[in-house]
Amino acid sequence: MTYLAPNHPDRDDLMQRSLIEILRSSGSFRGESSLETWADRIAARTAMRLIKQRARQAEVVTLVADPEPEEFLSGEDEAAKASLRRRLSSLLSRLSPERRGAVVLHYVQGYTVEEIAEITETPANTVRDRLRVGKSLLRKYILNDRVLGESEEGET
Question: What is the pTM of this model?
Answer without folding.
Answer: 0.53
